[in-house]
Amino acid sequence: MRYYFRRWLLLIAAQILVMCTLYLILQDSQVRTLLSMFLGWLDGQGLYMCKIRKLPMVYEHGHEHYYVVWETSCPTNGASLEWWTDDVPGDGSSASHHFVKAQYKMIDKSHHRYSVVIGPVGLATKVHYRSTSHSKSTAQYSITRRNGAELTRVLVIADNQNGPAEFRKVLSSIRKHYGGNNFPDAILHVGDGLQDSRKLSDWQNQLFSPLEDGGGYQHRSPTVFVPGNHDHDKARTPNNGNLYTDMYHGILTTDGLGEPVVMNGTYHRFFHTASLGSARVIVLDSECPSAEQSEFLERELQSEAFQSARFRIVAVHIPPYIEFWNPYTWNERGEKHWREHIRLEYDVLFRRHNVDLVISGHQHNYQRGTVRRNLQSVGSSDPITYAIVGGAGGELDLERVENWNMYNVTYLDHHFVSLEVDDRQLRWLAKNKAGTIIDQFDIVR
């Protein structure tokens, strides 16, 4: 009897050991990346039943609206989204539930995309929503809205493309930073969320799956999306690879974008503004040096909303001042002249119109420099800060190609930034994937 009892105990212990080992293996970022790719391959072979392929991702869409996008593996005519708010401040009444039929876009036979615009949400401090497809609803997700006097926490990341395993490590550090079931109030993604916008596998494996595995922030923290050079097709044709990021103002016809490939084309207008607590953010499309964008930038920089904001920020994917790149492509292929309009045209305006902080990606490492706004005035004490945050997972840029003598901090590894603003202070905290602080500064008003 004792013999069989010991065998039974050993069997249970072995099963526990195997389960623990499998659990630890599945926590490895490289294994989870390979598993995501394998499941994506199964999807492509039609070996899964109809299901939600991508859970909802929410983008900011103006001050009182949000854009939500999700995807299923087969079409459905009944896709919709239900949204509601907490009690409306001031009138003592409960906000009603809104049911919105989703707009449908077939990407291919196994990728069926749905989108809904939520709003206007008015003065609500909480917005709740859930999507429905095939008579099945997702979990309820909630968005927290802060006013300008409240502390607003913004996660800042960029350039996770082609590095899903490293991206997962960064996301793990982000989750520890915010703690448990806490979420940032918004995400500022400064571009290049994937390598090739025309590859559905890149969207899934490099962006959506890591975000889902890393805590699902994209469901609850509205993303302010800054387009990078990998996120959409430079041709700006109607079918230009903006499969999941066509949230800003739709498609419009334009003229004179300055490049032959887009002279008579159409493109998704990404440049826009967003309010994040007491900060006002101007988002620019570095890939689109158009007269329209230049006019928009000058108008917004001088606007009452921007000038009266406690903190004034510009987000543009390609930095005005790049120091690290591939030496061959930089010098021999002329990439040192790529998007020079950002430095020669836009940065002049940044300095002239009291921009506090310019946030960029593109260069795959971290740099931050706080310099005098007026380079001709030696005694000037009015600073402007430039930050490059291109280290969410992509292959690092380690070779120096320029030296602008302006960056106070350089860090050549993967990282993220926690940006916090309230009515008196902007706090910038940069951490590496191990959670160690690599840089921090405050702007106090």
Automatic annotation (TrEMBL):
SUPFAM superfamilies per record: Metallo-dependent phosphatases
Q: Which InterPro entries match?
A: Calcineurin-like_PHP (IPR004843), Metallo-depent_PP-like (IPR029052), PAPs-like (IPR039331)
Entry's transmembrane regions: 7-26
Q: Where is the Calcineurin-like phosphoesterase domain?
A: 153-366
Q: Name one GO molecular function term.
A: acid phosphatase activity
The UniProt keyword set, sorted, is: Membrane, Signal, Transmembrane, Transmembrane helix
The protein in question is named Calcineurin-like phosphoesterase domain-containing protein
